[in-house]
Write a structure and sequence with these properties.
Elements (H helix, E strand, L loop, with lengths): L2 E5 L2 E3 L5 E8 L8 E6 L5 E7 L6 E3 L7 E6 L4 E6 L8 E7 L7 E2 L3 E5 L2
Parallel strand pairs: 2-11
Antiparallel strand pairs: 1-3, 3-8, 4-5, 4-9, 5-6, 7-8, 9-10, 9-11
Length: about 120
């Protein structure tokens, strides 16, 4: 079955960096656009970034543009999010989501990112 498993979250100081991974299985990863979505404490879901199936196009939310980089390795069926210059407002649970419609059809369980001094 389709599985998406995030990892790499943790506690980081403001200005620091983290790299999230999303390991996938159960489908042809290279056929799908993939997204990162986050949910801050007490807030709704916020779309963060998308990458096309062949990595030719990436897009970012204004709040993370210039600081975060989405990438993928289709040989490893894995999605990544490199997060630099972290801010306290980046604190959230980060989810990877497959772009299969509605608008996402499969999600991971999420990984917690906390930015605090």
């Amino acid at each position: 079955q389709v599985q998406l498993v995030e990892s790499g979250g943790g506690l980081e100081q403001p200005g620091g960096s983290l790299r999230l991974s999303c390991a996938t299985s159960g489908f042809t990863f290279s056929n799908y656009y993939m997204n990162w979505v986050r949910q801050a404490p007490g807030k709704g879901l916020e779309w963060v970034s998308v990458i096309t199936s062949g990595s030719s196009i990436t897009r970012y939310a204004v709040s993370v543009k210039g600081r975060f980089t989405i990438s993928r390795d289709n040989a490893k069926d894995t999605l990544y999010l490199e997060m630099n210059s972290l801010k306290p407002e980046d604190t959230a649970v980060y989810f990877c989501a497959r772009d299969g419609g509605a608008p996402y059809d499969y999600w991971g369980q999420g990984t917690q990112v906390t930015v605090s001094s």
